[in-house]
Amino acid sequence: MTSSFEFHTYPARLSDAERDRVLAVLREGAAQGKLSHDTFLRRMDLALAARRAEELKLLTADLESEGPWSRRVFGTVGRISAFSQRLRRAWQAERLPKLLLPHPGAYPLRIGRDPVNGLRLSHDTVSRLHAELSMRGGRWILRDLGSTNGTTVNGRRVTTTAEVRDGDLVSFGTMSFRLASH
């Protein structure tokens, strides 16, 4: 019998990184046709429910047969693929329509679908009152007004306010622009 002062030690909880690594191996195995769809789903469930590293190791034992040379080749191909995606995004960003920064005024420039806005964007992904742009202390500030589909600056979602400047990529819903000064 154990007293209330004694405690049992259990194996350390698996980290999210360990589970993510196993899930990535399972996804790659399914993509390469090494696992059927049903086997893939069953193993994913087991990976999420696993309590010990040994359980995770068993789930991928038949899939991790790549040597160091193959890992290097696949890693290089992955990096080249990521580079080509970044290049495509950069190319598309340069082709975006320009949004001219307004002359600073006493009131912010409201942006949205509603006709009362200073900048009306007639698109389904733009909220009626989506965002506002104002000059504060010599800096342009973009503020999201609780829009449904969000406002982003250079790919980062604006939850409150963000400083913007000439050349920044801004999106209201799915409408994207490149900011430009006069």
Q: What can you tell me about this protein's structure?
A:
The chain is an alpha+beta fold and 182 residues long. It has two domains: 53 residues, no CATH class; 83 residues, Tumour Suppressor Smad4. The chain is built from four helices and ten strands, in the order ααααββββββββββ. The strands form two sheets. It has a five-stranded mixed beta sheet, with no helix packed on it. It has a five-stranded mixed beta sheet with strand order 3-2-4-5-8, with no helix packed on it. α1 runs antiparallel to α2 and α1 packs parallel to α3. The chain is elongated.
In brief:
The protein has four helices and ten strands.
Key descriptive features of the protein:
2 domains, alpha+beta, elongated, 182 residues, 10 strands
Beta-strand residue fraction = 15-25%
For the secondary structure, the number of strands is 10
CATH class of the largest domain: Mainly Beta
What is the structural class? Answer: alpha+beta
**Net shape:** elongated
**How many domains make up the coordinates?**
2
Give the fraction of residues assigned to helices: 25-40%
CATH architecture label of the largest domain = Sandwich
Major β-sheet annotation: 5 strands, mixed
H/E element order? HHHHEEEEEEEEEE
Distance between the termini: 81 Å
Describe the protein's topology.
Layout: H1 16-31, H2 37-49, H3 53-60, H4 68-94, E1 98-100, E2 109-112, E3 119-120, E4 131-136, E5 139-144, E6 151-153, E7 156-157, E8 161-164, E9 169-172, E10 175-180
Parallel strand pairs: 1-10, 2-3
Antiparallel strand pairs: 2-4, 4-5, 5-8, 6-7, 6-9, 9-10
Helix pairs in contact: 1-2, 1-3
